[in-house]
Amino acid sequence: MTQMTDPTLVVYGAGNIGRGIVSLLFGAARYRLLFYRRDREALVKMQAKGGYVIHRLGGGEDVPVSDFQVLTSQEELLQALTGCNMTACCLYPSAFPQVGAVLAEACRIRTDPLNVLLCCNEPGGAELLSRAVTQALLPEEGDGPLQKLHIIPTIVCSVGFPTPDGAYDVTVSCNGYLEAERSAFSGPVPQIPGLELVNGVNARLYRKLYLGNMFHTYAALLGAKRGYETMSQCYADPQVRRWVEEAFFQSEAALLTKWKFEPSEYLRWRTMMLNKMDQPSEDRTERVLKDMHRKLRREDRLVGPALLCLQNGYPCSRLVQAICLALERLGSESPDFAQQLRRDPAAAAQDVCGLEKEDRAQQMLVQQIVWWLKEDRNSC
Q1: Residue 311, exposed/middle/buried by CB under 10 A (0-12, 13-18, 19+)?
Q2: Which terminus of the chain faces fewer neighbouring Cβ atoms within 10 Å, N or C?
Q3: Which of 276, 362, 275, 354 is CA-nearest to residue 311?
Q4: Does residue 124 sit in helix, strand or coil?
Q5: Is residue 292 within a helix (H) or strand (E), and if so which, with residue range?
Q6: Residue 265: other Cβ atoms inside 10 A
Q7: What is the pTM of this model?
Q8: Which fold, 202-375?
Q9: Which of 289, 297, 290 shows the shortest CA–CA distance to 350?
């Protein structure tokens, strides 16, 4: 199929990130936006109402979005992927088997490369998606179709949450942006304001996950214990803020031992990240605390930095507290898990977090989790 005349972006997974910061940046660059998500009926209703509005957290003009097309079937999605300039995959790895099958079919048909911005903030996400595409190929195809696919690790540097007063509206960070791996593109690199091309996305991804995502999740966990409903309420509490900052400093010490960043760039990023606690936000704590199973995985925002601290000889008491609050949160949602957590906290933590008995640092973390659950659970 010949490529579409106008610059076109297929937003594969048109949720809060896809319809938020991704569509804001590419829409401003006059890309034609094609939306696809599993709940296609919601997108059709949104289109029938005339679109939606992107609100900017912390100031800035609202941006109405009405110039888009909704892809209502897998057939329309495949047709779009065979002719688009680029696609943004805004889905988590649990969806990669389905995404991989569709991308494999699109690459069978395409005659030119397909750049895929992978916007899931997932360590190793590009390798996982590539593997899913490979598994969808037939043995006799070899890696021919895969050669046309260029998966670009991309960091989403913006919030993305539904606006309470608007059924389809999305709120993004006022100065939100994307960071994409420069070397992963095939062909001319698109010049999109707000799409920053960098070298070494992997280290920056862990930085965002272990510092930014970590303290936001920890603040929500502490705030939820106090009955706070919004993130602004969480950060307005002096004790919550103090503990969140302590967790930030603990994680930062270990992070900077493993990864090196250009000093002035890191200082700018660090200041911006910590200043987010002062920005008014109606982001709901309930939204931040969704999908806690994923957020408790070994390399994710809570367990990952705690292990990094233990591996490098740094204290991680606040990170351990965050893990325990997250485990208790799971227990509040599942009576069976709550019972397991009371009966055998070590086994419960190992199971949920994927911690191995043979690893010294991981077992040190298990011991600290068990101690906190037994001795310190009333301290917050």
Answers
A1: middle
A2: N
A3: 362
A4: coil
A5: helix 292-295
A6: 11
A7: 0.91
A8: N-(1-d-carboxylethyl)-l-norvaline Dehydrogenase; domain 2 (1.10.1040)
A9: 297
